[in-house]
Structure formats: C-alpha cells, structure tokens
Amino acid sequence: MADPATLALIARAAIPAGTDKRTWKVIGAIIAALLTPVILMVVVIMSLLSATASHNNAAINLTFHGGAISSQMPADYADYIRNMRDSFSELDTAIGNISTELESGSLDST
Description:
Blueprint: H1 4-19, H2 21-65, H3 75-101
Helix pairs in contact: 2-3
C-alpha cells in the first residue's frame, strides 16, 4: 500500500484538477477518441445487417407476391427465384387436385 502522505498529496492535486472545467473537457475528448472506433464498428455492422434484411425481404416478396426480376440481378439468383416460384405453383396445383378428391372440407393450402 502507498504511503499515506503520498496519497494525501495525490488527493490534494486531484481535487482542484477534478473541479476544473478544462480537465473535464480533456477527459471527455479522450473518452470520445477511445470510443469512436467501437461506435463506428457497431454502425457498420448494423448497416450490414439492415441491408441483409432488406435483401431477404425483397427475395421473399419476389417469390411469394410476384413481380419483375431485375435484369441486374445475378443469373443464378434469378434462376433460384424462378425455381421457387415454379415449386410453389406445382404445390398449389397438387393441393388443388387433392382438394377435389376429398369427401368433406378441403385441404389447407397454408
């Protein structure tokens, strides 16, 4: 443990420095400089997650609600969307065929 006289000297020096407005500004600037990279990384990650969610929502809307597929979309991705549309159309047809053969009620297409 430090000498009590040394601790008293440190306390005497810290009290005026702690009440000085310039000291608080310097401490605030240091904290801001240290936290800026962390804040920027969080903002970048959040924007990437937002873009991913928007992309997934657009794919769902194209698949289930139709719409024109952009010509700028990669060919593999456009084929994937078309294949999903075709698969759901086939499922709807199969459900329609089965529903006509049921004696009571109908098959829930959902």
